[in-house]
Amino acid sequence: VGEGAADGFDAVVAGLDPAMVVVTVTVGEERDGCLVGFHTQASIHPRRYVVWLSVANRTYRLAQLADHLAVHALAASDHALAEHFGGTTGDEEDKLADVAWSPGPGGVPLLEDLPARFVGRVVEWLRPSEGDHQAVVLEPVEATGGELGPDGPFRLGHAGDITPGHPA
Ligand SMILES: Cc1cc2nc3c(=O)[nH]c(=O)nc-3n(C[C@H](O)[C@H](O)[C@H](O)COP(=O)(O)O)c2cc1C
Questions:
Q1: Which protein residues are within 6 Å of ligand 1, measured from CB?
Q2: What is the best residue among 36, 50, 99, 127 to mutate for testing ligand 1's pocket, by most ligand atoms within 8 Å of CB?
Q3: What is the torsional sign of CA 140, 143, 147, 152?
């Protein structure tokens, strides 16, 4: 995008109002998770999902070493959890210390308050030569839930007051 297109680009993308997810990870005794807006299903046969992680994030650094990640859907009413995972960094506090979770495949934290989720096995990483995010390709290996309630997902437009714990 040329500089002249930047404002228009930002407006078009914001207008899509994407749903947010919380991605969690564990490596040994280390755990973390962060709010993610850059994510999508990326293949039907086989099913694949791609999550883009900022290289600044601790979640990214742990994910480099992980076999599995968990992707949790957020309902519109889940602002507090979105702020917890998107507005603070594991470099400064243990985000899993004060939320209820249980270990899933490979020990990955499954958040009790976000039951619509799947666990993905790490298939490969996409590392563009430019840009501040890298993508991890996931194969779903376990999934539960689905209903997010009458108000639907927690979207970008609900997150306007959340300042990322790490600048991208
Ligand atoms: C609306 C919103 C969307 C975000 N989208 C992403 C994203 O797609 N990928 C990502 O890695 N971080 C994203 N973040 C930033 C992280 O959630 C945030 O910096 C977090 O504090 C990182 O925590 P960590 O260092 O413990 O991993 C987003 C934050 C907000 C508020």
A1: 32, 34-38, 52-54, 57-59, 86, 88-91, 156, 159, 162, 164-166
A2: 36
A3: negative
What is the whole-number distance in angstroms between the Cα of residue 161 and the centre of ligand 1?
A: 13
pLDDT band at 146 (very low <50, low <70, confident <90, very high): confident
**Tens-place pLDDT, residues 83-101:** 999 999 999 999 999 999 9
| pLDDT one-digit tens code per residue, 26-69 | 999 999 999 999 999 999 999 999 999 999 999 999 999 999 99
Closest CA relative to residue 70, chosen from 103, 119, 115: 119
Q: What global pTM score does this model have?
A: 0.97
Assess whether the previous peptide bond of 153 is cis (omega < 30° from 0). Answer: no
How many residues would you count in the chain?
168
Give the list of residues 6+ apart from residue 137 with CB closer than 8 angstroms, or none. Answer: 42, 48, 49, 50, 122, 123, 124, 125, 126
**Residue 57 in contact with residue 47, Cβ under 8 Å?**
no
The dihedrals phi and psi of 6, each to the nearest 5 degrees, come to -60, -50
